[in-house]
Amino acid sequence: MKPTIKDIAAQTGLSIATVSRVLGHKHGNYSQKTHDKVLAAAQELGYRKNSAAVELVKKHADVLAVIINATPTNFSTAIIDGIQQRAGELGQQVIILYAGNRDTALQHQAITTALERPLAGILLVAIEPDEEDRQLLQASQTPFCFVSLNLDDPTIKSVSSDNRQLAYRATTYLIDHGHTHIGLAGIDNFHTGSQRLAGYQQALADHQLPQDPAWVQPGDYSYQAGQNVLPAYLALGVTAIVAASDMVAAGLLTAAKQHHLVLPDQLSLISIDGTIICDLTTPALTSMTQDFRTIGQQSVNRLLGQPTQAISPVVLVERDSVTITR
Fold first, then answer.
1. CB–CB of 203/177 below 8 Å?
2. Cα(first)–Cα(last) distance of the chain, in Å?
3. Which first-to-last residue range defines the signal peptide (predicted)?
4. How far apart are CA 32 and CA 34, in angstroms?
C-alpha cells in the first residue's frame, strides 16, 4: 500500500497537520528540525505525492473534491446533482471520494487523498469531523465547506438546513393536530441528531407537554433503524412520531404494517427530508422537505466565495400520514 501522510505522522510522532504543512511547503509553527525529520521519514517510507502533483506549479486549480459519508439514507444524490451543476457553471471539475459510514479511518484517508492534489476546495457531505480532521483541513490552507451539516462554529464554512427548526416545526405540526405523546426516531448523537433533538424538545417545552426520554429512539437514519424502534413505541402510548429521515419513516411504516397498525388512524408519522420516498409509500408521508439540490449548489458558492444562502429554507408538505386526534 502506498504510504500516506498519516504513515509519516505515525513514524515521526508528529500530527498529521504538521506533516501536511511541511510536505506542502507551507509556513507554520514548526522548526527546521521538524522539517528535516518529516522529509527523512518521507524518503525512508518512499512517500510520493500522486502524479497530479505536477499541477502544483499552476496558480489556479479547477477541481473540487467531494467527500461523502455513506449514511444509509437517500438524500445525497440530489446534493451531488446540485454540486455538479453549479461546479460546471463555474468551470470546475468534480472528483468524489467515499468515506464509509462514520468510519474514522476511511474518513481520514479520503481527506488525505484529496489533499495530495491541487484543489480549488473540498466539500464534505454529511461528514462529522473529529479533531484530527479539523486540524488537517485547517492546516492544508485548502478551502473547505461542510454540506448538510452545521457544526455551530461560525469560523467553519457550511451550508445546511436549520436542523433545530426542522424538528421544531415537525413536532409543532403534530402538536397542532392534537398529539401530545410524540416520539423522535432514528437520530444519532452527532451534530445533526443533537440539533434535531434540541428542536423537538423545545417544541414540547414551548407547548408545556410532557417529555419522556424513552420517546427518543436512536438510530443511524436508516430503514432498518425505523423497523427496529417501532416495538419500543408500542408500549409507550406514543400516537405520533417524527422520523429523522425518510428511510426511518419507511422502516416505521413497514414495521407498523407487520404489527397490523392502521396508519394514520393508530399512528401518525411526519418525516424529515422529503425525498421521492414520501410519495411512494402508503400512506404518502407528510414531510419537512429539504431542498437538497439547492444545498449542493449553494455549497459550491460558499466554497468559492460566491454569494451564498448558507441556511437553506424548508417546506412542510402535507400528505396522508398524519391524522387529527381531537
1. no
2. 64
3. none
4. 5
Contact (Cβ atoms closer than 8 angstroms) between residue 181 and residue 240: yes
**Residue 262 DSSP label:** P
Continuous H helices in 124-162: 131-140
Other Cβ atoms within 10 Å of 313 Cβ, number: 12
pLDDT tens, 295-324? 999 999 999 999 999 999 999 999 999 998
Classified as helix, coil or strand, 271 is strand
**Which residues fall within 8 angstroms of residue 22, CB to CB, at 6 or more apart?**
28, 30, 34, 35, 38, 39
DSSP assignment string, 68-116 = E---SSS-HHHHHHHHHHHHHHTT-EEEEEE-TTT-HHHHHHHHHHHHT
Q: Which position has the grid cell 407537554? A: 209
Count the Cβ atoms, other than its own, within 10 Å of residue 267.
Answer: 23
pTM: 0.82
Q: Judge contact between 98 and 70, C-beta under 8 A.
A: yes
For the stretch 142-178, pLDDT in tens is 999 999 999 999 999 999 999 999 999 999 999 999 9
